[in-house]
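Appendix C reproduces, verbatim, an entry submitted by the partner laboratory led by Prof. M.T., so that reviewers can inspect both the input and the predicted structure.
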Amino acid sequence: MANINQLPYFQINPARDLSLNGVNNTKETNIIARFLLKKTKKILREKYPYHYLIFARQDKRLEHIQKLSKKYKYFLKLDIEKYYPSINHKALLEVLEKELFKNKPSRQLKKIIKKEIPLFLKKSPIKSLGLPLGNYLGWVLAGLYLLPLDLKIRQLADRSFLRIQDDYLIFCKNKKEPEKILKKIIEPELEKLELKININKLNSGKFHQNPVEFMGFRYYAGIFTISERKIELFRNKITKITHLTKKKKKKAIIKLLNNKILGFGHYYKFAYCKQDFEKLDAFIRQRLRRYLIKNKDQKQKIGNLLLTNQQLKNFGLKSLMGIKVKYGLKKKHIFAKKTKKRRKIGNLHRIDTEILRRFAPQDDSFAVILKQLQELAKNIKKVERKINNIEKKLENS
């Protein structure tokens, strides 16, 4: 096997790369990917209801982690080194046949696994190794490649776990379990698949005492925040877009920024991130102002216009806090308790029935007293109206 550290990540260009029948690669591979997912959905729903191939609700995943961390006090977090470039084609085809050929396979399924997928795998720059990034079929195959390991964790360890591509978060009952699961189940199974654990990202500990990073979130003391590494990566992307050497128009730059803001904001809006979003919004506005003012092509068009926050918003710039606030309002709207509006009677906004019960007789006379008070309030209101009308007539005369 080639040196893992030297294995390259690669992508397939759908515009240039044509598949077997001369059909655009993206269109054809998407059809194959959807077919494979359809065949594996039943298996995944029964054994892995939170598997990322069939379950995409980010908020529910985070709630699931919070719920399980109360039951299972310890965790094992691991990541596979150079996962996409390290996938062995022969082992992948064996996994697909083993998992999908359990029942009588259809002719179409046999054709896909025996002919079309091997031809798709040949596009890798390294012989017999690697899956492309940014391709739907590559994403599905990468998800199915580790199914044997998923099955072993469920059957042998009988443990709940979450997996996003090659990232695992396994919930454990005691301090010794992470090491046992790692040595007896994970390492032997990864060796069969010719994969290695990323030692730098291997982590274990106790929930609510040791922070754990998963899916780009940092979970500590029952609260999800954004990983510092992900924040730094986002800032680097914004810096790259707003570099002064760019010669793009204002609308084009704002469109690029909005794409990054919407992607980042909607992914992390479920976390405790108000301060992070405010700081990042300020950073984005600062970079955009700098670009618009110092870029020679834009300077003449803008002139001496003061680039306030509102002005940048009028240009069409989105904000991370806008996404967070909108999500917060929506969540409150869904979970808010419906409160009954109190009736206003004249100038008496409400009648405290608890006080009346304390001092009124505990029989039918209480209802009579309450009714009389309500009638009295109505009469007071009528008298006030008449007095107001008389005063108006006197002023006019």
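The radius of gyration is 32 Å. Additional entries are available on request from the coordinating office.
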